[in-house]
Amino acid sequence: MSYEKSRRLAYRVRRHALDMTNRGGTSHIGSILSMADIVAVLYADVMRYDPANPRWPQRDRMVLSKGHAGAGMYAVLAESGFFPVSELEQHCQNGSRLSGHVSHKGVPGVEVSTGSLGQGMPMAMGMAMAAKMNGSDHRVFCIIGDGECDEGAIWESALIANQFALDNFIVTIDFNKIQSITSVENTIRLEPLDQKWASFGWHVIRVDGHDHAALHQAYSEALAARGQGKPVVVIADTVKGKGVSFMEGDVLWHYRTARGEEYDAAVKELEAQKL
Amino acid sequence: MRETFTRCLQDEARNNENLVLITGDLGFGVLFPFMKEFPNRFVNAGISEQAMMSMAAGMAMEGKTVVVYSIGNFPTLRCLEQIRNCCAYHEANVKIVCVGAGFVYGTLGMTHHATEDMSALRLLPGVTVFAPADAVETEAVMARFLTEPGVAYLRIGRGGEPVFHERDALAGYETGKAVPYADGRDAYILTAGGILSSAVEARKLLADRGLDVGVASFPTVKPIDQAYLTELSERVPVLFTLEEHTIVGGFGGAVCETVAGLRGKRPRVVRIGMNDCYSSIVGSQAYLEAYYGLDGKSVADRVQAVLEGRA
Q: How far is CA A82 from each of CA A31, A64, B292, rounded to the nearest angstrom?
């Protein structure tokens, strides 16, 4: 399989996000590019949802806990049919509902608003716990950042989700190795990250977060793990700024907006990757 | 108050199958009857208030009415941003209960003195703040607390407090209403919470000194009863506010904000409470109330001094 659908979607998420951050003069393009393949695989082939009925009770839930990558979430939702792609042009414009950090108010497909790190994951956990109480079949997906793992509430949640055997709860860590000022390694070291989560009682899957075949395999394993009484964490090794060579692995692009020649060069690089 | 809370909670749980109780590993003994009757609707989230509060919001987003139980500052200040972002902004049906208002846990030290919580919760849009004075007020507000949509905060004592109202006198209580206790001509002492007892005692002492001072309790601190404050302001020259809490931004602050904005007569407002400080000493609730000038005699002396122009 070529995974054309998810790869095409990932391309479009990246392309939209570049324009959205350019137009809005906003930051975090590096964090969006690193998770583009993850959200693309989830929305193209893994999650159950109905864009015509965004509140369909049986839908899988998605919480983007690393809310600063909101542009990527809006892009994948628009491309998946939740609202017109043209509305992405309003991102971060005066009076817009499409805020830099993801917002659920008036935005179909967004379950909750995030932006303050360490809060989306426990909210998602509450959704998973409610689903268990209700005997519902749907799954709760959540994407957290690696820097976000500095937050105590992430580990509080890791303990609680294990205690309550939330095997309907699938957390993906966008492990792009760079946080706000410098690398994760030089800030608050996380490795051995898979051992940490395993010791917290989670089913751990480590994967190349840009390899669509591997991501599909990872989520198949994650869904198949249901019934084992363990929450699942997919640790996705990613590259910050993935897809634009001069952004890749450079902390500068946590904040910088691509403008002028940089924007043109980024567009050219991305469009060369178009399927 | 605590026993009334748990009884009303169980009654409502029988009516509402979506009601869930989460505790931050507190309530040993107190919550056992609920756990026994509703084992599948009881969650002990452990000592992790931040995750607990966000989790409560997530459950509420799925249709649950989530009651979060803890003591002191743990379900409020410890997770204030989670209350703001996860609960209030999402208009989630999360009901936060703090047992241990003011100096209820007086001997345990300043970490367990809940003396800024009303200010903190009151400033968040979309959060209703209840501070009942006794078991009757607690029963009255519980019906609102558990059934009205959105985030609400309930601040109660530990139990055994005196009762000031006739049983069922407040049936049908509406959120935001003050409860007049006794009329007065010279001034009023307005209170929120169990400290009503000091106001009632002060009123008696002041009567012996020839002063006619009214008393009213405010089981709802937010929204504050503007109509009642407007009416009082028309006929009373001085309003005293009394709270077992900081005088900054809490109940007294709410009264000041309201009275300052009135178009008609504006009485002087004198706030009695903790004067922007922490308590570095410990003691029983009664001891600390007296130490900080919140007992009946101290309040009476303060009121008299103000009314005689000495303060």
A: 23, 16, 58
Collect all residues of chain B within an 8 Å Cβ-Cβ radius of residue A231.
Answer: none
Taking the CA atoms of residue B107, residue B112, residue B115 and residue B121 in that order, the dihedral angle to the nearest 10 degrees is -160
Which helix (DSSP H) or strand (DSSP E) does residue B53 occupy? helix B49-61
Distance, in Å, from the CA atom of B285 to the CA atom of B290, rounded to the nearest integer, reads: 9
- CATH of region A4-271, choose from 3.40.50.970, 3.90.1150.10, 3.30.70.2470, 3.30.420.10: 3.40.50.970
Q: Yes or no: say if B194 and B161 are a contact pair by the CB < 8 Å rule.
A: yes
B192 and B78 assigned to the same domain: no
CA distance A73 to chain B (A): 19
* B80 and A CB contact within 8 Å: no
Which residue has 């703040």 as its token pair?
B129
Measured between CB atoms, which of B58, B63, B82 is closest to A125? B58
Q: Please, what's the b/e burial string for B166-183 (b: 16 or more CB within 10 A of its CB; e: otherwise)?
A: eeeebeebebbbbbbbbe
ipTM: 0.96
Answer whether residue B174 is part of any domain.
no
Alpha-carbon separation of residue A66 from A120, A212, B159, B277 (angstroms): 8, 21, 43, 38
| Contacting B residues, span 81-100, partner chain A, CB-CB under 8 Å | 81-82, 85-86, 89-90
* CA–CA distance, B87 with B81 (Å, rounded to integer): 9
Question: What string of H, E and C letters represents the secondary structure of B72-138?
Answer: CCCCCHHHHHHHHHHHHCCCCCEEEEEECCECCCHHHCHHHCECCHHHHHHCCCCEEEECCCCHHHH
Tens-place pLDDT, residues B79-130: 999 999 999 999 999 999 999 999 999 999 999 999 999 999 999 999 999 9
Question: Rounded to two decimals, what is the model's pTM?
Answer: 0.97
Count interface pairs A-B at CB distance under 8 A: 100
Alpha-carbon gap, residue B71 to B112, rounded angstroms: 8
